[in-house]
Specification:
- The structure holds two protein chains of two kinds.
- In chain A, about 70% of the residues lie in helices and about 0% in strands.
- Chain A has helices spanning about 15-50, 65-75, 75-105, 115-125, 130-140, 145-155, 165-180, 180-190, 195-205, 210-220, 220-235, 240-245, 260-265, 270-300.
- Chain B is α+β, with helices and mostly antiparallel strands.
- Chain B has helices spanning about 1-30, 35-45, 60-70, 85-100, 120-130, 140-145, 170-175, 195-200, 210-225, 235-250, 265-280, 285-290, 300-305, 320-325, 365-375, 380-385, 395-400, 410-420, 430-435, 440-450, 455-470, and strands at about 75-85, 105-115, 135, 175, 180, 185-195, 255, 260, 310-315, 330-335, 350-355.
- In chain B, strands 1, 2, 3, 6, 9, 10 and 11 form a seven-stranded mixed sheet that branches.
- In chain B, a hairpin with a 2-residue loop joins strand 4 (about 175) and strand 5 (about 180).
- Classes of the chains: A mainly alpha, B alpha+beta.
- At the A-B interface, helix 1, helix 5 and helix 13 of A face helix 1, helix 5, helix 12 and helix 20 of B.
Chain lengths: ~300, ~475
């Protein structure tokens, strides 16, 4: 009772008041914290435990061990899916970053109606994840779709975009590349931050625009390139919506990305143990790639506050 | 600071535990939505001690079920789920309204939707024990999600509330597993040919009555209507069922018998060659062509709607769906089975749909009353009509027939199917590892054949090994 705030004399706060003040912040985040623990941390850790079992939703667990991991690295279908995921990511991420930087570079100039263009280019990023856009994508690229119709107007034959294993993955990648808006906005902000006097000095020295781009612009925005690279890489490896809605993983498993295979194993075959193991393999891959990116940044990322 | 953080962490951990416990409590009592039922149940348990003498009352759970079965149909709140199209939703909702009008003390909560994603949602709710009290299920769900009888109620325990005598022994047997009647079959279905008569007339030929006619139609379509026109369209799974029909006709034996695949790789190869021949004869388009159409299913394919694809091999219960998808001026007719496939009458029928009651429902008797109304009662059956196929319930069939309520095309197709097919279907035929698109065995073997990745021999081996792996798992 002596520690109650009302009991404190001479303005010196009591233990309870101190405790209350120091931990008030925890109270504000308590709701989020509970959500994090229950819906993130618990599934995260329990999936690790399940990954060492043959947990089937309706048959329970009969066996513990490394069998899921052994199967992942020996099953042709799973390894094929992993290969497709790498291919997808290595097509999508560079294309998306290059495109976003290109458009940001153009929009960085003082042109008439620039705000309209910035908004217009950002819209796909808002719409991109929606089911409706994926359905629209499917309609565009089907045999009788708009893309083939345009090609046929110009005398071409068109292609069976969604049914030919050669093209299907590219079509799925294109959907993600089209959603370059968020990366573009970050690039735009970075470009605005490049000091104008660097360009002025380069111009006086006779450097061409291309030379200025590679020798001033790119080095100055490498922190944002690095940030975009890591976030886009993480997103690409977890891509699900596009192949799920547009091709369901077909044709001939050409677009069965790893996340789609995890979903199929978990919710169609109910092999939760195997699905958990696959999710952990995916997590480790993304983590290793991120680590490589972080370790490599000292060789190519320029932070303004660095010495030398 | 360290101590306070520890204290706070402990409090948070406790709160998490409390919230988890709360979740668990909610989960286990989620089916207990009846307000007055517990008292009624207790009263029923007191007054019907004789029920405890029955064989079903071996365990405590069974005893609870027994008590619930005796609960009077009053002051209860139950839930029901189903999937389907708009017509089915409207009919079922109307029938449930009629039931609640007759039973004002019963409240029925409904949940329904389209098929897409429905099975995934239901399977997880069966696992979690949060499924509605009454559920429309697929026949193979009994094996897949039945959990040795722990998911669905043995309907023999509510026989006082549901008139089982309306069903043949064979029908009831088809849904009996783990020694219990797990569900009530609503209708039987099988695959049969449907032809777009208008397109065949455009090509100047009759609809096919034999394999020879069909192959001739392929050439006629190509020559007279163009490369895009085909007399039959079939995806990978449709081809699988067509091939089984063909092989059973040729060899006169069921596809799977006593849990083992009844065909050798050489025999299956003959089936694969049959499918290849259909593609080569311009009878069916390649799988790539159908996939390139960009439609989710054949009934949503513009080429089906406008008659470019002039035939399907589909479930008899799907007739109205495919018929209503056709553009105006197209006429769909039910085809005949081909007798020149082989000496036997190949093909199979299966339970189209069934209704099951959740094992953990506290209102089993009320659920059974609702099902009895929907499936057997004059009024309920007349509202439901043939929205789930031709009823297996004798009284429902009589009511629908007497009042001319059955879809004529569905009725014709169903009669033809049931009078032709002679082979049983193994529940594992529809196993996810076989049927999944695109990584299931059927899709791998038959898609690979169509994409020329496999020879008929290779495809047969892929199918043979894949099916055996599933059957032996």
């Amino acid at each position: 009772m002596a520690n109650k705030p009302s009991d404190t004399l001479q303005g010196r706060p009591g233990k309870f008041t101190l405790f209350y003040r120091r931990n008030l912040g925890f109270l504000f985040i308590l709701l989020w914290l509970v959500g994090f623990l229950v819906f993130r941390l618990y599934p995260f850790l329990s999936s690790l435990v399940y990954s060492f079992s043959n947990f089937h939703l309706f048959n329970g667990i009969q066996q513990w061990g490394l069998m899921n991991y052994q199967e992942i690295f020996s099953d042709k279908k799973i390894m094929n899916s992993l290969g497709i995921t790498f291919k997808y990511s290595f097509i999508t991420v560079p294309l998306k970053l290059a495109f976003a930087l290109f458009i940001a570079y153009i929009l960085n100039y003082k042109i008439k109606g620039v705000n309209f263009f910035r908004t217009a280019y950002y819209i796909p990023s808002i719409l991109g994840g929606s089911v409706a856009i994926a359905v629209l994508w499917k309609a565009l690229f089907r045999d009788q779709g708009l893309v083939n119709a345009i090609i046929r107007i110009f005398g071409g034959e068109g292609a069976n975009w969604l049914a030919d294993p050669k093209y299907a993955l590219f079509i799925i990648s294109l959907l993600r590349v089209w959603q370059f808006g968020s990366a573009m906005v970050l690039f735009l902000a970075a470009l605005k931050g490049v000091p104008a006097d660097l360009y002025e000095a380069a111009t006086i020295d006779g450097a061409s625009k291309i030379r200025q781009f590679w020798s001033i612009t790119v080095p100055m925005i490498t922190p944002i390139i690095f940030y975009n690279l890591v976030t886009q890489l993480c997103q690409a490896f977890q891509e699900f919506n596009g192949p799920f809605i547009i091709t369901q993983g077909g044709p001939r498993n050409a677009t069965t990305l790893f996340s789609l295979l995890i979903y199929n194993r978990a919710f169609k075959s109910y092999e939760m143990g195997m699905a958990s193991a696959m999710a952990w393999v995916l997590f480790v891959i993304v983590m290793v790639l991120s680590l490589i990116a972080f370790m490599s940044q000292k060789y190519w990322v320029y932070y303004g506050d660095e010495k030398g | 600071m360290k101590t306070t953080t520890k204290v706070l962490s402990a409090i948070m951990a406790l709160s998490v535990c409390a919230s988890m416990t709360a979740c668990g409590g909610t989960s286990s009592s989620s089916g207990s939505t009846t307000t007055a039922a517990p008292a009624d149940t207790q009263a029923a348990a007191d007054t019907t001690t004789a029920a405890a003498d029955t064989a079903a009352a071996d365990t405590e759970a069974a005893a609870e079920t027994e008590a619930a079965a005796e609960t009077p149909a009053g002051n209860a709140e139950i839930s029901i789920s189903w999937w389907g199209g708009d017509a089915r939703h409207e009919a079922t909702q109307k029938a449930i309204d009629a039931f609640t009008a007759k039973n004002p003390n019963v409240k029925v909560n409904v949940s329904f939707g389209a098929w897409s994603g429905w099975e995934e949602a239901m399977s997880t709710s069966f696992y979690a024990g949060t499924a509605p009290d009454v559920n429309q299920i697929n026949w193979n769900w009994i094996e897949n999600y039945g959990a040795n009888g722990a998911t669905f109620l043995d309907l023999n325990t509510v026989a006082d509330h549901f008139d089982l005598s309306q069903y043949s022994d064979a029908a009831l047997q088809s849904c009996t597993m783990f020694g219990e009647l797990q569900a009530i079959p609503v209708s039987m279905t099988g695959r049969i040919f449907y032809w777009n008569k208008t397109t065949f007339e455009k090509a100047g030929i009759d609809t096919p009555k034999s394999l020879a006619d069909l192959k001739a139609a392929g050439q006629t379509f190509k020559e007279k209507l163009g490369d895009e026109y085909y007399p039959l369209a079939a995806g990978e799974y449709d081809r699988m069922i067509l091939m089984v029909y063909y092989l059973e006709s040729v060899y006169g034996k069921p596809w799977v018998e006593n849990g083992a695949l009844n065909y050798t790789p050489e025999e299956i190869q003959k089936g694969m060659e049959f499918l290849n021949d259909l593609e080569d004869s311009h009878v069916i388009p390649t799988c790539a062509t159908i996939l390139g159409d960009g439609a989710d299913s054949l009934d949503k394919n513009p080429k089906w709607m406008n008659g470019t694809y002039a035939g399907i091999f589909e479930w008899d219960s799907s007739a109205s769906k495919f018929n209503s998808a056709l553009e105006e001026g197209q006429e769909l007719i039910v085809g005949d089975y081909f007798s020149d496939f082989g000496d036997s009458k190949g093909g199979f029928s299966k339970v189209s749909l069934a209704f099951a009651i959740s094992e953990n429902t506290p209102n089993a008797a009320v659920c059974a009353d609702l099902l009895n109304f929907l499936l057997n009662d004059d009024e309920g059956a007349s509202i439901m009509s043939s929205e789930r196929g031709i009823p297996l319930s004798a009284n429902a069939l009589k009511v629908c027939t007497d009042n001319n309520l059955l879809d004529p095309m569905v009725s014709e197709a169903n009669k033809k199917v049931l009078s032709w097919v002679s082979f049983p279907l193994d529940a594992k035929f529809e196993d996810a590892k076989l049927k999944n698109n695109p990584d299931g065995v059927y899709y791998d073997a038959i898609g690979g054949l169509s994409y020329d990745e496999y020879t008929p021999g290779d495809a047969a081996l892929v199918l043979y090994d894949g099916i055996n792996a599933v059957l032996n798992s």
